[in-house]
Amino acid sequence: MNKYRTHTCGDLNKNHKDKKVILSGWINKKRDHGNLLFIDLRDNYGITQCVIDKKNSNFNVLEKLQLETVIKVEGNVIERSKETVNNEISTGEIEISIQNYEVLGYTKELPLPVFSDQEYSEEIRLKYRFLDLRRKKIHENIILRSKVISFIRSEMEKLGFLEFQTPILTSSSPEGARDFLVPSRLNPGKFYALPQAPQQFKQLIMVSGFDKYFQIAPCFRDEDARADRSPGEFYQLDLEMSFVEQEDVFKVVEKLMTNLFRNFSKKKLLYDQFPKIKYNDALLKYGTDKPDLRNPLLIFDITQIFEREDVKFDIFKKLVKSGSVVRAIITKNTKNKSRSFFDNIDKWAKEQGSSGLAYFTFDEENKIIGKGPIGKFFSEESLKQIMKITSAEIGDSIFLSCGKLDEVEKIMALARQKIGNDLNVINKDSFAFCWIVDYPIFEKDVITKKIKFSHNPFSMPQGDIKNLDFSKPLDLKAFQYDIVCNGIELSSGAIRNHIPELMYKLFSIAGYDKQTVDKKFSGMINALSYGAPPHGGIAPGIDRIVMLLAEEINIREVTMFPMNQNAQDLLMNAPSKVSDEQLKELNLKFLKK
């Protein structure tokens, strides 16, 4: 190729036998066998084993070079003997007999080993991210990310979408997470905001007459870090379409995700056509609007059972009378499980902050009985009724939780995953996508008791627009949807509200007057007043998609230069202080608390 290499470290095989080659890369590993020194040379493309005899004058110098030194080697390709072939690497049938070498880049003592994927502290890994990224697993993850994005671009173009870029410096929005603000030098006292998402801009693109838009969009939110969310910034596949209904968006996204996941993973897709689950049904059956459908366990409401006179479980009965609910999970054929299995789940639930999970097993001794700590409190008729509601059978067991609705939903969602893992019934060799639909437009604030938007305020209400009943706002549903895979929310989307009068009405219910809407969303509301088409879209997270494909549980493992949990870039020392001169230019000064 050039003076540094004729081939990469992933190119050579036995067809190159006896050829003179030049390779360059990092010393990944060394093995000194006395008379022979083996060096694994690594570059972006792979690893090639190189060998030098002690008789070679370069032997002593190469022997002393540290791992991760960058070298160039010249030598001949020789075929390995059958017993020394390494089938784990593409170059495993050959090795390079080193004749000459040159050091291209020396290294200091390493703060972490590169040839190993062993876990190191977050601080070390992020401070020396350039070394961390050399390690095999994360290096492959970043390459995977690049290929995924290229594939998405290609597929979107095939589907007739055009890629546009939207502004990075924009105005602050009153909805959503905290903004990152940028002071304006030319407009003293005023600030730009980095976009939390291109939401308003992509709608304006539709109003501008473009039909299908997409973008691999950077988004900025001043939020705390989580395992599946980077602090500060992330990327999403932002897309929007004109003259569409909800189903049209679903068809595009399902086709893209199906092709994408089949192309980059050998795991099975459980559904070609993704199930649509109503929001309220998701909370009932799974305890969450982010269900993992690989788990066959379901949650059932059996509150009514505790209104029966022949049920003597007084603790739950009193709670139900005061407004509590009872939810249950059935485990199939667990009659022979040990007492410790059930007690450990009850103990685990208490560790999560709940009062625990009551349980018993459906058994039969001349009649149906409940076998377990609370089974004796249920008559045969009440047990039959529970079995009818939950489709339980003799030999199945039941776990119960009683309390306030939101608390019960939370613990049962966690318990469903805990029990599913303990019983090994989750199909982990698969991807299970689904849509969560029919979100409520409004919800009541727990603290203030005031009505507020539950999700995206720009969503189109369901039903006959001309005859909506605004007197019951909590009953209004939106054409709003989430796409979920294996319990991870990839994105929210919606058919947009493109009618200004309707938007004013919905915002007024949430406490925004017309003047506020005009001020906060001036660009959007003005554009919608000049002939806006029906439109809708969605924005799946790139980071989370790659996370699923790479089988990682932390988004840091698929992000090239992530921040730490405190939103700090340890490599580049950001955020950092700026000089007084810079502050003066921006008409800013710090005030001591």
Q: What key attributes describe this structure?
A:
28% helix; single chain; 16 helices; 5-stranded mixed β-barrel; alpha+beta; 8-stranded mixed sheet; 593 residues
Helix content: 25-40%
Mean pLDDT across the residues is 95
- Gross morphology is globular
Largest sheet: 8 strands, mixed
What is the subunit organization of this protein? single chain
| Fraction of residues in β-strands | 15-25%
Query: Which strand order do you get reading across the main beta sheet?
Result: 6-9-10-24-23-22-19-12
Rounded to the nearest angstrom, the radius of gyration is 30 Å
Number of helices, where a helix is a run of at least 4 consecutive DSSP H or I residues: 16
Structural class: alpha+beta
The N- to C-terminal Cα distance equals 61 Å
Give an overview of the whole structure.
With 593 residues, the chain is of the alpha+beta class. The protein is built from 16 helices and 24 strands. It has helices at 59-64, 122-127, 129-132, 136-158, 199-207, 246-264, 279-286, 314-321, 339-351, 380-390, 405-422, 500-509, 514-520, 522-528, 542-550, 580-585, and strands spanning 20-32, 36-43, 46-53, 70-79, 94-105, 162-163, 181-183, 191-193, 212-221, 232-242, 268-269, 276-278, 299-301, 325-331, 358-364, 368-371, 397-403, 430-431, 433-437, 442-444, 451-453, 480-485, 488-495, 535-538. The strands form six sheets. The protein has an eight-stranded mixed β-sheet with strand order 6-9-10-24-23-22-19-12, sandwiched between helices. A five-stranded mixed beta barrel has the order 1-2-3-5-4. The protein is globular, with a radius of gyration of 30 Å. The mean pLDDT is 95.
